[in-house]
Amino acid sequence: MVVGSGVNGLACGALLAKAGWRVCVLERNDWFGGAIKTAEITAPGFKHDVFSAWHPLWVGGPAHAQLADDLARHGLEYLNTELPTGTLYPDGESAFLLRTAEANAAELDRHHAGDGDAWNALLGEFFPNADLAFGVLGTELWSRHGAALGLKAVRRLGRQGAAEFMGKLLISARDWLKTAFVSERAHGLLAPWVLHTGLGPDAAASGYMAQVIAVAVQEGGMPIPRGGGQRLADALVALIREQGGTCETGVDVERVFTGGVRTSTGEAVSAARAVVCNVTPTQLYGSLLEGAPAKAERFRYGRSEMQIHFALSEPVRWDGDERLGQTAIVHLTPGLDGVSRAVNEAERGLLPAEATIVAGQPLTIDPSRAPDGKGILWVQLQELPWRVKGDAAGEFDVGDGTWTETLREHYADRIQARIARHSPNFESSIVARTVLSPADLQAANVNLVHGDPYGGSLALDQNFLWRPLASQPGHRTPVDGVWHVGASTHPGPGLGGGSGALVASQLLEPPLAKRVVGRLKRDPKKKET
Ligand SMILES: Cc1cc2nc3c(=O)[nH]c(=O)nc-3n(C[C@H](O)[C@H](O)[C@H](O)COP(=O)(O)OP(=O)(O)OC[C@H]3O[C@@H](n4cnc5c(N)ncnc54)[C@H](O)[C@@H]3O)c2cc1C
Q1: What percent of the chain shows pLDDT beyond 90?
Q2: Which of 18, 73, 280, 428 has the most CB atoms at less than 10 Å from its CB?
Q3: Secondary structure of 88-125 as H, E, C letters
Q4: Measured distance between the N- and C-terminal CA atoms of the chain, rounded to whole angstroms
Q5: Mutate which of 2, 7, 29, 52 for ligand 1 pocket (most atoms within 8 A of beta carbon)
Q6: Percent of the chain with pLDDT strictly greater than 70
Q7: Ligand 1 center to residue 104 CA distance, Å?
Q8: What pLDDT, on the 0 to 100 scale, is given for residue 513?
Q9: What is the rounded CA–CA span in Å between residue 513 and residue 503?
Q10: How far is CA 297 from the centre of its chain?
Q11: Mind listing the pLDDT tens digit for each residue in 380-408?
Q12: So what's the pLDDT on residue 523?
């Protein structure tokens, strides 16, 4: 039984279904996918990814590795690009992250001779231990697999080397970027990416996350499903149903216990083997498992976010480098200090004066999402407070600090005007605009508490070994047979489906006795010792 149909619930359900389990998914909303949804929310014919849009984490993740062929059978097809991302600076200059080491070295050298060598040095250092770096994100850390990963690091690097490696994982993006590259354009190219991991550039471990993303984007690009992100959720549901499972929308689960759940209409649904909860810790321990020993009152949510969707009569024509018009994700920011300032303002309760604008152009990869010749802009703003104390730009009154319609539209106007400064045709081509404030996001999906897109703060004390709770890390709960997945759990947010895959592999792992017998059979000498 899976409670909630986010990417992790569905990935877990699909992996179990493929292994022969009869899976039941219960979803309270009227669509499957949680933060995955494609809909015509602006004007007819314009298909917007309402929340998440970019799938490099899914395509590079463990669930995709096991399910790709089955999902392709159910209509999932990935499209990709050679121009995944770039940053556009206020002076009209831009920098790009491309698909090969040579192209990236040349691009960075364009901004400062020598930064290309620094890029190659980064890759030279990263690749030999990429299995360890990615392993941290693909392993149940508090388990024998986590211990094995630690041992592998010590065997390969020595005790001192392993300690050094672990230390490097904790570096902030600011410290890493300033040590690695001279050009501020290079800093500004990579700094905005830490926002997509729920961090800021001065946070512990943001340097490690920036490196993982930089390498992942170079190697994997920016894949998206033909027809919209919803195709991923639909294919996962189709696979579960094909294997004899059931998936239902409009079912709100109110209580969870060993052996089943109770819905808000009082119906009891039993689960023979496990209940996997794709929820936040506050819901899990506050209501679903009320009375369980773990407590989540101190779990902190992260910054809030806003989405702005534009339907356009023609694609955005950017001033400056012509590659901007073909790039999947363009960040508009003054650079590393600009991102840092906007994060800091949001964390102090202010609307940032100069937010980092994430301008997504899905039609550069998948033209099927809008009528011929039209445009779509997917805009994400990841530096916002939940309760607004003021405006760092001093431009408007924030009222009582809640996300009213007026505040939402005023803030969206500011963002729209900033984009227009870089594009002569942008404002005149707007057919329709739909804005989702943090309050709208929370209303759309109960897991997006305070409009936090990433399932809880990823500050070090709530990340990695300590996610979701230092007192209850990992994916087991104190209640037998009840498991916890989703963005709030390790390896955190994004469309990787990592926590779903980790729980599925633990549920499918043979019991200890069977494993020992299996090992002895494979290596009979071990029996004698
Ligand atoms: C606006 C936005 C943009 C993003 N962009 C990207 C992106 O481009 N790429 C990327 O990799 N990541 C992106 N992310 C992050 C990523 O989408 C999320 O981290 C991820 O989708 C979360 O998945 P999840 O498994 O935690 O479940 P969720 O997506 O949070 O879904 C959980 C589901 O469980 C249901 N549920 C909860 N409680 C119950 C209950 N009691 N009974 C029944 N059902 C219940 C909810 O209704 C929901 O449908 C974005 C997130 C947001 C919000």
Answers
A1: 95
A2: 280
A3: ECCCCCEEEECCCHHHHHHHHHHHCCCHHHHHHHHHHH
A4: 42
A5: 52
A6: 97
A7: 32
A8: 65
A9: 20
A10: 24
A11: 999 999 999 999 999 999 999 999 999 99
A12: 62
Using an 8 Å Cβ cutoff, are 55 and 196 in contact?
no
- Which single residue is written with the structure tokens 């399910």? 67
Q: Which tokens in the block code for residue 9?
A: 């619930």
State if residue 280 touches ligand 1 by the CB under 6 angstroms criterion: no
Question: Which residue has the least CA distance to atom 53 on ligand 1?
Answer: 453
In which band, very low, low, confident or very high, does the pLDDT at 136 lie, cut at 50, 70 and 90? very high
pLDDT band at 511; cut points 50, 70, 90: confident
Ligand 1 pocket residue status of 306, Cβ below 6 Å: no
Please return the burial class of 87, using the count of CB atoms within 10 Å of its CB with bins 0-12, 13-18 and 19+.
buried
For ligand 1, whether the C-beta of 447 sits within 6 Å is: yes
pLDDT the model gives residue 294? 87
- Nearest-CA residue for atom 1 of ligand 1: 51
Q: How far is the CA of 100 from the centre of ligand 1 (A)?
A: 31
Q: Is the CB of 497 within 6 Å of ligand 1?
A: no
Q: What is the whole-number distance in angstroms between the Cα of residue 174 and the centre of ligand 1?
A: 29
Judge if the beta carbon of residue 27 lies within 6 A of ligand 1: yes
Which pLDDT tens digit goes with each residue over 337-361? 999 999 999 999 999 999 999 999 9
pLDDT computed for residue 529 by the predictor: 31
Pairing, β 260-263 against β 268-270? antiparallel
> Which atom of ligand 1 lies closest to the CA of 493?
19
67 ligand 1 Cβ < 6 A: no
Is the alpha carbon torsion for 71, 77, 81, 87 positive or negative? negative
> Mind giving me the DSSP string for 450-507?
GG-TTSS--SGGGSGGGSEETTEESSB-SSTTEEEESTTSTT-SSTT-HHHHHHHHHH
**Does any ligand 1 atom lie closer than 6 A to the CB of residue 4?**
yes
Supply the DSSP string of 421-440, one letter for each residue: TT-TTTGGGEEEEEEE-HHH
Task: Determine the distance separating the centroid of ligand 1 and the alpha carbon of 494, expressed in angstroms.
Answer: 8
Mark 187-196 as b/e (b = at least 16 C-beta within 10 Å): bbbbbbbbbb
Question: What does pTM read for this prediction?
Answer: 0.96
pLDDT of residue 328: 98
Length of the chain measured in residues:
529
Give the pLDDT of residue 515: 66
For residue 348 the two structure tokens come to: 């102090």
Exposed / middle / buried, residue 158 (Cβ in 10 Å: 0-12, 13-18, 19+): exposed
